[in-house]
Known about the structure:
The protein is α+β, with helices and mostly antiparallel strands. The protein has one domain (about 1-125): Alpha-Beta Plaits (2-Layer Sandwich). It is about 25% helix and about 25% strand. It contains two helices and six strands; from the N terminus they run βαββββαβ. The protein has helices spanning about 25-45, 95-105; strands at about 1-10, 50-55, 60-65, 75, 85-95, 120-125. The strands form two sheets. Strands 2-5-1-6 form a four-stranded antiparallel beta sheet, covered by helices on one side. The longest helix has 20 residues, at about 25-45. It is globular and about 50 Å long.
Amino acid sequence: MAKYLLLKHYRGAPAAVNDVPMDRWTPEEVTAHLKYMDDFAKRLERDGEYVGGVALSPEGTFVRYDGEGRPPVTDGPFAETKDLIAGWMVIDVDSYERAVELAGELSAAPGAGGRPIHEWLELRPFLADHADTTE
């Protein structure tokens, strides 16, 4: 088994087929999208392939160490930056091919008009599991 991170981007990934930003969706479209995501996660959990996941707020702050005895340095929030991660999901699957299959399925979550978004998801193997992806 190998773990993969699926990253959903609000911005920063190539444009989706149904590229209407979520803030322009109706409440019903948002509800349908969230239900699809929840049902997807529950199915993976039942099948033993779900590790965790969460939607993220668009607000955030960069933080870094600034030396011994000094408070951390912060910069932000950066909601207007080019890349904005909407959420993430960690899966634990038998193969890279299975990870790609699940990412493709998740990409079809409904968006505006109830049509599949066909968004690009970033699929990243955990570093410790990276060797498993080339076998």
